[in-house]
Specification:
The chain has a 5-stranded mixed beta sheet, with helices on both faces. The N terminus is likely disordered. It is built from 7 helices and 5 strands, in the order H-H-E-E-H-E-H-H-H-E-E-H. The chain has 206 residues and is α+β, with helices and mostly antiparallel strands. The protein is globular and about 45 Å long.
């Protein structure tokens, strides 16, 4: 299980694009397997993401990317902020995928988003609160002021599936983006990427 220290080591400025393509993925990687598991094609893995991930979608135009974030990750807010102008101008659709591993508070905070009557509105209210804590040390209670909720069994399973698929992509932390390239390979961007970096990616996305 990753820790906050792991994120601080790996999560800042690590930009893997062409070299981050996901290859030969076994969906069963997230949990120990007692028998050999069949390999999955990258196209199959991309399709699986749409079927198995629990996400909050913002935008309905442009290519789709999956943005994995933890409520306790203030750098995830910076990436969220960089994506917003591209969403508003119809250049990008982002599916925000909550995971919960950084802090004890991460799961209740992720539950507050997923269990909200309007998850997108909850996310839009949630992220500026996270942004106010950018660069500040966080304790076990996480970002001050974030809503939290009791984690229902269904939500716990959704969060488990989300992080399992993230691990299957061999990502080392959050923020992390998975995207579908025009060469039919699944790409990985791990760590922060600027708005200009996202714009540079756009012509290569399906």
């Amino acid at each position: 299980m990753w820790t906050r220290n792991t994120w601080m080591k790996w999560g800042v400025g690590l930009f893997l694009m062409a070299t981050g393509a996901v290859t030969g993925i076994s969906v069963a990687m997230a949990e120990p397997a007692t028998h050999p598991q069949p390999k999955m094609t990258e196209a199959g893995f991309w399709k699986l993401l749409g079927e198995k991930l629990t996400f909050i979608q913002e935008g309905h135009k442009g290519p789709v990317i999956y943005d994995f974030f933890d409520p306790g990750c203030t750098y995830c807010y910076t990436l969220y902020n960089e994506e917003q102008p591209l969403i508003r101008t119809g250049q990008l659709t982002v599916r925000y995928v909550p995971v919960a591993y950084l802090l004890p508070s991460s799961a209740p905070e992720a539950a507050a988003l997923l269990q909200s009557p309007n998850p997108l509105s909850a996310l839009q209210h949630f992220e500026p609160i996270v942004g106010k804590s950018f660069g500040k040390p966080l304790g076990a209670s996480g970002v001050p002021g974030l809503p939290s909720a009791k984690v229902l069994p269904m939500t716990a399973q959704e969060l488990k599936e989300n992080i399992g698929l993230l691990q299957s992509a061999r990502a080392m932390g959050v923020p992390a983006i998975l995207y579908d390239q025009k060469n039919s390979k699944v790409g990985l961007v791990q760590g922060m990427i600027s708005r200009q970096g996202l714009i540079t990616m756009l012509p290569h996305l399906q």
